[in-house]
Amino acid sequence: MQLEVIQIPAGPLETNAFVVIDAATSQALIFDAPPESVALIEGEVMARKASPVALIIAHGHWDHIQDTSAVRDRYEIPVMMHDLDRERLESPGERDFPAATPDRILTEGDTVELAEHRFEVFHTPGHSPGQISLYHAESQSLFGGDTLFPNGYGRVDIPGASESETLATMAKLLEFPDEVTVYTGHGASTTIGQERGWIERVVSSGKLL
Ligand SMILES: [Zn+2]
Ligand SMILES: [Zn+2]
Q: 178 CA to middle of ligand 1, Å?
């Protein structure tokens, strides 16, 4: 059965949350919880009479996690993320938003289920140490947060980012088919095929752009 993907930009950086709905059961996965996103997510979920089953945090930067506890409390669903970014959620620091604790830690090779659908977890660090991307092979969809954008990768000039890990992650992305749609953390989605040219150049040179 088909999946419906709803993109919901929210907050000062227009960070994308996604609601992904299984048409057969109306069960839904929510990806990321940006600032001021909970009401927008609720609107889309209500309009489709969907039932969220989990909130997945693709990486722990504040602009992707600020409404985590609000979304979890609204739907009483488990929060899932990689261990290396959990501290950003558990200790927001100077960013003043409610802390939360992940209910399930995701690592490379894990699977998240949505009804009959399976999303495979890939660890794609670089922009953030605990960044993950979830792949749904049947629809050739990759939910990568700030891993990949049209014509570029997530910023590496910020604390916790790593150029060498970004290079390794770019090499990993080349293993996906050209047809794969990559849903990004900000702005438009892209495909592996559209980005393959510059990614290959970066990987073969061993240097970021
Ligand atoms: Zn980020
Ligand atoms: Zn971001």
A: 24
